[in-house]
Write a structure and sequence with these properties.
The chain is built from nine helices and 15 strands. By secondary structure, it is of the alpha/beta class. It has two domains: about 140 residues, Medium-chain alcohol dehydrogenases, catalytic domain (Quinone Oxidoreductase, Chain A, domain 1); about 140 residues, NAD(P)-binding Rossmann-like Domain (Rossmann fold), CATH 3.40.50. Strands 3, 4, 5, 6, 7, 14 and 15 form a seven-stranded mixed beta sheet that branches. Strands 10-9-8-11-12-13 form a six-stranded parallel beta sheet, with helices on both faces. A two-stranded antiparallel ribbon has the order 1-2. β8, α3 and β9 form a beta-alpha-beta unit.
Length: about 325
């Protein structure tokens, strides 16, 4: 079978397409024939070697995949069953989805929910799963469509674009923040009623600014997140899931102690397995059918390295699907 293999020589990461056998796969209870995978920001960092995502080599990247069970020693899964995997360190410290076969722990898999297939599941992927967790965090914090406008930062990426579509479908008024003018038509089609540039939240601000957003989903981090917090309504919620703008948070405590603002971190990697099926059911229920043709474009396994470079250079909007079979 074909696989994208990452190797390291003299401190440099090299990606190559090669043939591997099932005997090369790591241990696990379930072997899956991979139909579709995707390229996330983390995948792009791993493939290009621009981030310390992979710490053991050789490695097959791909932090998510969907396909059919080829063999299972776990009674929860049977041959031919369609399954999804996102997270759990797959593609980082356990061989991932950018190969014809993957062998993983049964606990990491989710049975394909009714109304979804492998291709649609990977249009959603880790990015969409994370976006749904962010939306659920707003809901759990009491932010409703009647609360006011919701800001989504980094809206042209996989998480941001899915979040825009989900929020719009749920009746929220959505403002999308992006630095790419070329993505405005896509964001409007997904449901953004307003679009602002990233410079809006890049300047120096006071510890508290005028209250503007009832809640927000932030995929950027850094100064953008810090400035965003100063503009959240009293009792508002910010769900933070990204760090493309940096890992520092040069913020004041004032939004938290004077406006009762909640900053909710979102992790999709180790999210409890038993609850994952419910998140996927929400995605099937809440994402409109119009989302799928808008949000993804396809590449082959041979085009993955170039696509990863394009993603890091902001030349790609939405989700990048990898057709394995």
């Amino acid at each position: 079978m074909q696989a994208l293999l990452l190797e390291q020589h003299n401190g440099q990461t090299h990606a190559r397409l090669c043939a591997i056998s099932a005997d090369d796969l790591p241990a696990g209870e379930v072997t899956v024939e991979v139909d579709w995978s995707g390229i996330n920001y983390k995948d792009a960092l791993a493939i290009t070697g621009k981030g310390k995502v992979v710490r053991q080599f050789p490695m097959v990247p791909g932090i998510d995949f969907a396909g059919r069970v080829l063999h299972s020693s776990d009674p929860r899964f049977h041959q031919g069953q369609s399954v999804i995997l996102t997270g759990w360190g797959v593609g980082e410290n356990h061989w991932g989805g950018l190969a014809g076969l993957a062998r993983v722990k049964a606990d990491w898999l989710v049975a394909m929910p009714e109304g979804l297939d492998s291709r649609k599941a990977m249009i959603i992927g880790t990015a969409g799963f994370t976006a749904m967790l962010c939306v659920m965090a707003l809901e759990e914090g009491g932010v409703t469509p009647q609360s006011g406008e919701i800001l989504v930062t980094g809206a042209s990426g996989g998480v941001g674009s899915t979040a825009v579509a989900l929020l719009h479908a749920l009746g929220y008024r959505v403002c999308a923040m992006t630095g790419r003018n070329s993505t405005h038509p896509l964001l409007q089609q997904l449901g953004a009623q307003m679009i602002i540039g990233r410079e809006t939240l890049s300047a120096d601000t006071r510890p508290l600014e005028k209250q503007r957003w009832a809640g927000a989903i932030d995929t950027v981090g850094g100064k953008v997140l810090a400035n965003l917090l100063t503009q959240i309504h009293y009792g508002g919620v910010v769900a933070a899931c990204g760090l493309a703008g940096g890992t520092d948070l040069p913020a004041s405590v004032m939004p938290f102690i004077l406006r009762n603002v909640r900053l909710q971190g979102i992790d999709s990697v180790n999210f409890p397995g038993v609850a994952r099926a419910n998140v996927w059911k929400r995605l099937v229920k809440n994402l409109p059918a119009s989302f799928y043709p808008l949000a993804g474009h396809e590449v082959t396994l041979a085009q993955v390295v170039e696509a990863a470079q394009d993603l890091l250079a902001n030349r790609i909007a939405g989700r990048t699907l990898v057709k394995i079979r």
